[in-house]
Write a structure and sequence with these properties.
94 residues; mainly beta; three-stranded antiparallel sheet; two-stranded antiparallel sheet
Length: 94
């Protein structure tokens, strides 16, 4: 006879959280960047950030692509954004 195992990672909520996503996950907010690295995949270099997330009081650490974080959390990266022009040179805009 097997019994259901409930480990410490399972959390029972008294009601459905208001920020519950359709994929049954809770949206978090980034707290801080604790590391950076470059990942090379098929000769392409991707800059990765190690992010600490706060999800309703629970902390989680994940590696996220820097470009994705820049799109979703613009205020973290300041007002200066470097973009490449058509001729290959970089342009700094505010």
């Amino acid at each position: 006879m097997l019994k259901k195992c409930i480990n410490c990672r399972d959390t029972v909520f008294p009601s459905v959280p208001s920020n519950l996503q359709p994929n049954m996950s809770i949206a978090g907010r980034p707290v801080k960047v604790i590391g950076k690295k470059k990942k090379v995949i098929k000769k392409k270099s991707i800059r990765m950030l190690n992010i600490v997330w706060d999800r309703d009081g629970e902390e989680e650490v994940t590696w996220e692509p820097e470009e994705v974080m820049k799109v979703h959390f613009k205020k973290w990266f300041g007002k200066q954004v470097k973009t490449k022009k058509d001729d290959g040179s970089e342009d700094e805009s505010n």
